[in-house]
Amino acid sequence: MTDTISLSGLVATHPKVVTTAEGLSITSFRLASTQRRYDRAKQTWVDGDTNWYTVTAFRRLASNAAQSLAKGQRVLVAGRIRLREWSSEDRKGLTVEIEADSLGHDLTWGVAQFSRNSVVVSVPADVEANAALVAGDAAVGSSSDAEASELAPEPNGTASGWATPGQESSDRADADALPF
Fold it and tell me: Does one domain contain both 18 and 96?
């Protein structure tokens, strides 16, 4: 099934983290989503019914969720919904599962500070060995002043066509380019 859903709710359980034998990261938690409405007659907010979901994230999203989310926090979830029927000896039920594509804190209820993941780049061994020969006694991965100056901003305050804060680019091609 490829039905998608977006919802907000409360992380109701501590996120559970599992790593498979193949190294796949999986994080799951229960999410409670309660609709609130304003009752004009009582002039107060009233809670409606609570819907319960099992949210599961995989790979990098699972790792980031495990480090970022905690029980009691309000979050936003977008993902693919799946309904699973279950039965035990004396009961039957329906579980609503969401395979998360995106997770984040609900900023209606608080503030958050974003930290980008560092990107790990794998360098083939032959390239690394060649770099060591070219560099001589210098350590692999160290850069010379000439290399560092190539990465430094240009004297006019821009680097690679992107304006620094407070400056606008005069080149239309620069303005239309995406940073990713």
Answer: yes
